[in-house]
Amino acid sequence: MTTRLSGSELAAGIRAEVAAAAAELAAAGTPPRLAVVVATADESSAWYVRSIARAAEKTGIACSVVDLGETATPDRIRAELAALSRDPAVHGIILQTPLPADAVFEDLAASIDPAKDVDGANPLSLGRLAAGLPAFAPATAAAVLALLDHHGIPLSGAHAVVVGRSNVVGKPAAHLLLQRDATVTICHSRTKELAEVTRSADVLVAAVGRPGLVAAEHVAEDAVVIDVGTNPMPDGGLVGDVDAGSVSGRVAALTPVPGGVGPVTTALLLHQTIQAARS
Ligand SMILES: NC(=O)C1=CN([C@@H]2O[C@H](COP(=O)(O)OP(=O)(O)OC[C@H]3O[C@@H](n4cnc5c(N)ncnc54)[C@H](OP(=O)(O)O)[C@@H]3O)[C@@H](O)[C@H]2O)C=CC1
Ligand SMILES: Nc1nc(=O)c2c([nH]1)NC[C@@H]1CN(c3ccc(C(=O)N[C@@H](CCC(=O)O)C(=O)O)cc3)C=[N+]21
């Protein structure tokens, strides 16, 4: 029997908490505001921005989308992030990907005030996270931990294997798991014998962006599997990195896609915006 580790109820609970806090902040004269900086015409990015804006407004967080266009220069993007960092009416800032070809995400994100860096994009935030100092974690990495905690999965001493080493998901998720006393292995595209490594995981986090990468031969029978992948299919559907068909029935627990990490990510982004507005 494989338990379905749903994220939808957890996300709804976080959004309810966010709505109550946003109302309190507004009544106290600090209406919370999130700014989203966009420099792409990418369709899936536009979908994600709309879904953030919708969720923000539903919970009482104002959301300004600053679209600089796909021809924006790195200097222009940097200047905008710096201006928003100085704006006292803005509490949270996110820089959307993809970026124009000559822009480096981490380099530009260094211009986001760490106190407003609600998606943990500034390399300073990642460094602070790694050092065990207070910092905003990327919302997706935080969502992985929130799901594990919500479903009561023990982490201390557990072998956690993270597949993927991006600054947005894999690396920060590994640091958060390490902070919780898991024994952490990070895998990537050059990892040898991937299936052998992942089979030794008590907790397996897949954050790659390849449908079906994790199949039955990659998992132990009692593993807890968190599927971060959100891969759009030609038919308009969305699938994760885990081949749910071959894995479910075998592992102890698995997050669904959709309805797993995704909704928790968006809810935590709003929650981190509330934290930023409070400080
Ligand atoms: N639900 C949510 O909220 C979010 C979902 N996502 C989804 O998560 C997935 C990962 O995103 P992101 O981290 O940004 O992606 P990146 O493309 O930045 O990173 C992918 C990682 O996977 C590794 N990788 C690629 N191929 C393999 C392979 N065959 N075996 C092992 N490792 C491999 C890469 O290794 P190497 O470093 O060696 O190249 C890299 O570290 C995507 O599907 C994305 O859509 C992302 C953010 C939020
Ligand atoms: N710096 C950075 N931070 C991110 O957080 C980030 C990013 N870059 N790049 C793009 C990806 C993508 N992403 C998603 C978040 C929520 C859902 C989500 O809520 N999806 C719904 C389903 C939507 C549907 O059905 O189409 C779900 O999983 O249930 C999806 C995708 C965040 N990303």
From TrEMBL:
Top-level division of the source organism's lineage: Bacteria
Tetrahydrofolate dehydrogenase/cyclohydrolase catalytic domain sequence ranges: 5-119
GO biological process terms on file: L-histidine biosynthetic process; methionine biosynthetic process; purine nucleotide biosynthetic process; tetrahydrofolate interconversion
Molecular-function GO term, any one: methenyltetrahydrofolate cyclohydrolase activity
Listed Gene3D superfamilies: Leucine Dehydrogenase, chain A, domain 1, NAD(P)-binding Rossmann-like Domain
Signal sequence interval, chain numbering: none
Cellular component terms per the entry's GO annotation: cytosol
Pathway assigned to this chain's UniProt record: One-carbon metabolism; tetrahydrofolate interconversion
InterPro entries in alphabetical order: Aminoacid_DH-like_N_sf, NAD(P)-bd_dom_sf, THF_DH/CycHdrlase, THF_DH/CycHdrlase_cat_dom, THF_DH/CycHdrlase_NAD-bd_dom
Binding-site residues, NADP(+): G164, R165, S166, T230
Protein's job: Catalyzes the oxidation of 5,10-methylenetetrahydrofolate to 5,10-methenyltetrahydrofolate and then the hydrolysis of 5,10-methenyltetrahydrofolate to 10-formyltetrahydrofolate.
Protein name: Bifunctional protein FolD
